[in-house]
Amino acid sequence: MRLDEFVEGFERDEAAERRRLAEEKSYAITDYLDDVERQFESVVQGDSLFGSTAPEIFVGRSNYPDVSTGLLSPMDAEADATDFATSGEWYRQGYEIDDVLQRRTGLLNSTRSAEVNVEDVWDGFVGVQREVAIADHPVDVELGLDAKPELDLSLDDISTPTGPRARAREADLAENPHVPKAVEKTLEDDDWQAQGAMTYLYRRGFDVYDINTILSAGALGRGRNRRLVPTRWSITAVDDTVGQYLRGSIRNASTVNEVQVWYNDYVGNDYWVILAPGNWEFELVELKAPGSIWNPEPDGEYYMAADDEGYEGRTGYVDETSGAYYASRLAVLEHLEDVDRQATCLVIRHASESYWAPVGVWQIREGVRHAFEGDYATAETFHGAIRQLESALPVSLSALRRKSKMVAGIQSQLTDF
Q1: If DSSP codes are grouped into helix, strand and coil, which group holds residue 253?
Q2: Half-sphere exposure (Cβ direction) of 325: Cα atoms closer than 13 Å
Q3: pLDDT at position 396
Q4: According to the model, what pLDDT value does residue 125 have?
Q5: Cα-Cα-Cα-Cα dihedral of 292, 294, 298, 304, to 10°?
Q6: pLDDT digit string (tens) for 45-72?
Q7: Which residues face 286 on adjacent strands?
Q8: Confidence band (pLDDT; 50, 70, 90) for 268?
Q9: Which of 23, 149, 177, 360 is most buried, taking the most CB atoms under 10 A from its CB?
Q10: What average pLDDT score do residues 339-361 get?
Q11: How many angstroms separate the Cα of 71 from the Cα of each of 15, 35, 241?
Q12: Which residue in 99, 96, 187 sits closest to 135, CA to CA?
């Protein structure tokens, strides 16, 4: 398919965008929060929460190395706990922002303060938390609570939102968790560095969501170095580590033989992925609309951010695009590894006004992953593709050129295509 045919209909009608936003933006979540306290009262017996199933854990980053660490458990005893755990299944089921927020507000975050050094800690609250993290299915626990929950909603651009919090006095397992053999292997080897253990689990079929939870619980790495890792940090660490592994796997692969343009949209985000012949290079450019999350001024200009890397990868953390960079890079590298090719890649993410609440970088990872499921368009050259895409993008070509190294033509080999 030619690219000019591919982009027909993408011209933006700003008035229509605003009308669509008004129809889609939902404040039902505020009404849902009003029901949380009543739900909490119905499931708590005295000061305990019995038979709660914990699909996930959460580790905060404030006051590191003394952190808030928690078990996330549905307050609806009839709920399937697996539906509350962050995973790619949310994309496959078509979850919207409301769906994500409702599930997360339905999770009670039972927290305790803990020191991050957990080398030999397998008892008490932290021990239960670590058992939950390494299990291959949600685990039943009994929780003793000190107080009613704080009914707020914590939103983050990297980690998935968390709901009400209550201080936990104690936690006990109500069943024996089943631990996969591959995870047992990483735990038993005290000399295995965390990066190698992460790669091993990924090669054994564990998705990054599972690995992130295990890493966050301090269950990977050399024994003496095992620490609780704040959830926000562990998400990016796993995306980065697995991405580096995949980049190494395509170093000697043949390049793609044409300029390919892929597209997907999800929860108010548009994703354009351009793959061009050449050695591995990568750039993410983010375009955040006025009135969208992280750029709330409705009459302002588009906020633009970009980060990039060359064939040898990066030597430091990104400056502008945070966890979105590593999540989108991982998705692209998974596709290239699957087709045994390398490419020079530009990802353009447009966070529109419809992205009215942050739900975490999982949606970026899945949005780019699933871009490769559809058809793609072709263009004669990389810059030709950019010129044809201009009508579908919310910023001008000149603005994009000022922000993007690739679009500006700094990668000189692209100018010949």
Answers
A1: coil
A2: 23
A3: 94
A4: 93
A5: -90
A6: 555 665 568 789 999 998 999 999 999 9
A7: 305, 349
A8: very high
A9: 360
A10: 94
A11: 44, 21, 25
A12: 187
